[in-house]
From TrEMBL:
<dbReference type="GO" id="GO:0005524">
    <property type="term" value="F:ATP binding"/>
</dbReference>
<dbReference type="InterPro" id="IPR033690">
    <property type="entry name" value="Adenylat_kinase_CS"/>
</dbReference>
<dbReference type="InterPro" id="IPR007862">
    <property type="entry name" value="Adenylate_kinase_lid-dom"/>
</dbReference>
<protein>
    <recommendedName>
        <fullName>Adenylate kinase active site lid domain-containing protein</fullName>
    </recommendedName>
</protein>
<dbReference type="InterPro" id="IPR000850">
    <property type="entry name" value="Adenylat/UMP-CMP_kin"/>
</dbReference>
<comment type="similarity">
    <text>Belongs to the adenylate kinase family.</text>
</comment>
<dbReference type="Pfam" id="PF05191">
    <property type="entry name" value="ADK_lid"/>
</dbReference>
<dbReference type="GO" id="GO:0004017">
    <property type="term" value="F:AMP kinase activity"/>
</dbReference>
<feature type="domain" description="Adenylate kinase active site lid">
    <location>
        <begin position="155"/>
        <end position="190"/>
    </location>
</feature>
<dbReference type="InterPro" id="IPR027417">
    <property type="entry name" value="P-loop_NTPase"/>
</dbReference>
<dbReference type="Pfam" id="PF00406">
    <property type="entry name" value="ADK"/>
</dbReference>
<keyword id="KW-0808">Transferase</keyword>
<keyword id="KW-0418">Kinase</keyword>
<keyword id="KW-0547">Nucleotide-binding</keyword>
<dbReference type="InterPro" id="IPR006259">
    <property type="entry name" value="Adenyl_kin_sub"/>
</dbReference>
Length: 246
């Protein structure tokens, strides 16, 4: 252990100590961040993680990590994906269970992109109940569909780095080129106009009932995401204060 610590730069160790001191008195929170494609979850989720010392459990990231790690659930997910099929709820929830015991999840969790259906919400509740835990609140990021369409179809990325741009809200210095490398930007297939309406319809059909499910439990706090990034963050911090554990 000592030898391995010596290999870590002092700056990194000090930053981790500072983070742990910052997090020591943080309140336990297990929250769901939910909203339609283009609502800004990807911008706000990391800020919630950093400011409240929670871990970030996003379905896509977890699936990829599980497959790479070769965990029991990861092997099952890989088998299903290699067959060109959708990963079942049982496997997705199994991967969630594998991640809940991570050290960075001890204080709490931000669930992002999960649960997508009421069935998944019910399964998640059962998993947490078995651990003596539960969902403390749901932060619903609300944006009109017409604005979402403009947000999504204007997004472009630099594939190698993941840097993202928007033709209106965050344009590159040179149209169609990455600011750092000058390489061409691409538009994800899901962000092309023909697919946007389908994605929004899927959200309305599958995930809005999840919001209603938790609203019936008095756990939903709605945030107007049709504002500046800073204004949305101000509203999210106010909402997080409302979803603390009783």
């Amino acid at each position: 252990m000592a030898a391995s610590l010596r290999a870590i730069p002092t700056r990194v160790i000090l930053e981790e100590i500072q983070r742990r001191v910052f997090c020591v008195d943080k309140e336990e929170k297990r929250v769901i961040l939910v909203g339609p494609p283009g609502c800004g979850k990807g911008t706000q989720a990391p800020k919630i993680v950093d400011n409240y010392c929670l871990c970030h459990l996003a379905t896509g990231d977890m699936l990829r990590a599980a497959v790479t790690s070769g965990s029991k659930m990861g092997k099952e997910a890989k088998k299903i994906m290699d067959a060109g099929k959708l990963v079942s709820d049982d496997v997705v929830v199994g991967i969630i269970k594998e991640n809940l015991d991570r050290e960075d999840c001890k204080i709490g969790v931000v669930f992002d992109g999960f649960p997508r259906t009421v069935k998944q919400a019910e399964m998640l509740d059962e998993v947490l109940k078995s651990r003596g835990e539960g969902i403390d609140g749901v932060i619903q990021m609300d944006v009109p569909d017409e604005l979402l369409h403009a947000r999504i179809t204007g997004r472009y990325i630099h594939k190698a780095s993941g840097r993202s741009y928007h033709t209106e809200f965050n344009p590159p210095k040179v149209a169609g080129k990455d600011d750092v490398t000058g390489e061409p930007l691409i538009q994800r297939s899901d962000d092309k106009p023909d697919n946007v309406a389908r994605r929004l319809a899927t959200f309305r059909e599958q995930t809005e009932p999840v919001i209603a499910y938790y609203a019936a439990q008095g756990k939903v706090v709605k945030v107007n995401a049709d504002q500046s990034i800073d204004a949305v963050w101000t509203d999210i911090t106010a909402s997080m204060d409302k979803v603390g554990r009783a």
